[in-house]
């Protein structure tokens, strides 16, 4: 009674492992926004603090330049009372 070994399953996305797959999202050429923290994060909800950290802001006066993408715009929409936004690029 010999037990036959099962063949390994092929990878679901073999193209991604070989590096031949194209990226699914193209970056906007030159479209950036500058985000500046203008109010303190003392006394705000932890989730809001985490959003500021994800935007790269730690303290009042910090400025970070980010790509103008829907994900970033959504984070900014969560903290509009704490930041100023300046649009740059095309």
Account of the protein in words:
This protein is an alpha+beta fold and 90 residues long. The protein has a domain at 29-88: Ribosomal protein L30/L7 (Ribosomal Protein L30, Chain: A, 2-Layer Sandwich), CATH 3.30.1390.20. The protein is 26% helix and 19% strand. It is built from 3 helices and 3 strands, in the order αβαβαβ. It has helices at 14-18, 46-54, 70-78; strands spanning 32-37, 63-67, 83-88. A 3-stranded antiparallel β-sheet has the order 2-1-3, with no helix packed on it. The longest helix is centred in the middle third of the chain and has 9 residues, at 46-54. The mean pLDDT is 84.
Descriptive labels:
single chain, 90 residues, alpha+beta, Ribosomal Protein L30, Chain: A, 3-stranded antiparallel sheet, 26% helix
Q: Quick one: how many beta strands?
A: 3
If you compute it from the alpha carbons, what radius of gyration comes out, rounded to the nearest whole angstrom? 22 Å
Shape type: elongated
Just give the CATH class of the domain at 29-88.
Answer: Alpha Beta
What's the SSE blueprint?
Layout: H1 14-18, E1 32-37, H2 46-54, E2 63-67, H3 70-78, E3 83-88
Antiparallel strand pairs: 1-2, 1-3
Structure summarized in a few sentences:
The chain has helices spanning 14-18, 46-54, 70-78, and strands at 32-37, 63-67, 83-88.
């Amino acid at each position: 009674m010999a037990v036959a070994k099962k063949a390994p399953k092929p990878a679901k996305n073999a193209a991604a492992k070989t590096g031949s797959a194209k990226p699914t999202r193209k970056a906007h050429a030159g479209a950036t926004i500058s985000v500046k923290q203008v109010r303190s994060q003392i006394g705000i909800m932890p989730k809001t603090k985490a959003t500021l950290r994800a935007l790269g802001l730690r303290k009042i006066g910090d400025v970070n330049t980010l790509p103008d993408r829907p994900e970033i715009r959504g984070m900014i929409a969560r903290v509009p009372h704490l930041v100023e936004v300046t649009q740059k690029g095309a």
